[in-house]
Amino acid sequence: MATILLCSMSTGSTKHSNIILIVLFLDQVRVIAVVLRKETVAYHCLLCCQDQLHISDGVSSVYAHHFDFPYGTADIMCPIPSGCETVTIKTCDCLNISVVLFCGLLNQNKEFVEVKNQKVKSDSFPYNFTVCLSTMFDFTNVLQLVQSLEMLQLLGVNRVVVYKTSCSPETQRILDYYTHKGLVEVIPWSLSKFINVSRGWLPSHGPGDIHYLGQIPALNDCLYRYMYQSKYVALHDIDELILPQSCIMVQYKYFIYCWLELLPQLEKKYGADQCYMFENNVFPITVTLPPPTSQTLPLQNHHWQNVSGVNILAHLYHEPIIPETHYSNFKIIVNPRAVFRATVHGLLKSVKGCAWVDRNIARMYHTRDPRQPKLTPNQLIYDGRLLSYSTHLIPAVNTVLRENGLLPEDSIQ
């Protein structure tokens, strides 16, 4: 799980709960933390290296994207002593907790935590593609979850990381199923135990101390967690799919591996080590229209209607792209080793920046509530790209639902 620990700071006679440590990684020692932005604190780091203790000053830098909430994500950088190859760290204040930053006297009850990413790699990663899905809470959209996870596998994704706060029992059953299969890693996301998290992206959209259940620290935790485990990392939500428009779809066993074909194409066109930004196309779930007469919907299992959630194959019309939303709500695929800081849409700090991907090469399919609710059905635009995956997708979804008791045993494949 993510290391989330409350760290109280003592300033004079007043004690404040103002920093939450998420995880520690090695470049310097980078502590991804959640801090109270209005306070200025002198941090110190206690590092254990080769059986010796070293104290260094920690330098805090708050991420620019905090959306005006009191708390924001920060990197606290601890310099590594010369000749120190393998370190653990105790960043502390004055309390007996596992990982602390201290601003006064050092508590002697020390429990050191291993620093991650101590071995730098540039090739031979366990995974080609990892997708980071952040801050799942009160989640009940089982059908779309299964459809999306099966679609991601068809695209070539090897690992999906879910930062979970809460979900329905049926959702948990699905997560357990994919965890057992080796596709999903569930990170228990317990930030709400320490501060009042908002369920909105602005304070006006939901009360709380930090943006959207701590989405930004979760995304950055995932980015660093898989920095040397995955060749590429995609940051998007479970209701979003990045689909190439010209995949040859050469099937290998169960998978089609379109992303394996896409990324070399993007690197050649836009340059390697870029972040690739994909245009957001909203397919409103409030509208269900048949395809044009030249298209035929594939046969789907009628029992799907008894499963909680959205059927993405029923929503094939997207809202028109308008100037006000053209460059908003995009999502990205990155080489994680070329990134320092991520945000909800794009990056805050990276080696080479980001490039917009031509929508005729690939774009994002976002099946959700409408962004332009006043549109009439005849103003929506048909896009049947998802149907090209349906031959493989439908039986795969049926199998998962049936094996988890969500479809009758005698239902069609």
Question: How does this structure look, described?
Answer:
The protein is of the alpha+beta class. Helix content is about 15%, strand content about 30%. It has an eight-stranded antiparallel sheet with strand order 1-2-3-6-5-4-7-8, with helices on one face. Strands 11-10-9-12-17-14-20 form a seven-stranded mixed sheet. A hairpin with a 2-residue loop joins β1 and β2. α1 packs across α5.
Question: What is the compact description of this entry?
Answer:
The protein has 413 residues and is of the alpha+beta class.
**CATH fold name of the largest domain, please?**
Spore Coat Polysaccharide Biosynthesis Protein SpsA, Chain A
The fraction of residues in strands falls at 25-35%
Number of domains: 2
Question: What is the 3D form?
Answer: globular
> Count the helices. How many?
5
Secondary-structure element order, as H and E?
EEEEEEEEEHEHEHEEHEEEEEEEEEH
Mean pLDDT: 85
Number of strands: 22
| Sheet with the most strands: spatial strand order | 1-2-3-6-5-4-7-8
Which stretches of 5+ consecutive residues score pLDDT under 50?
3-17, 92-101
Secondary structural class: alpha+beta
Gap from first CA to last CA: 36 Å
Rg estimate, integer Å: 23 Å
Helix content: 10-25%
CATH architectural grouping of the largest domain:
Alpha-Beta Complex
What top-tier CATH class of the largest domain fits best?
Alpha Beta
- Main sheet? 8 strands, antiparallel
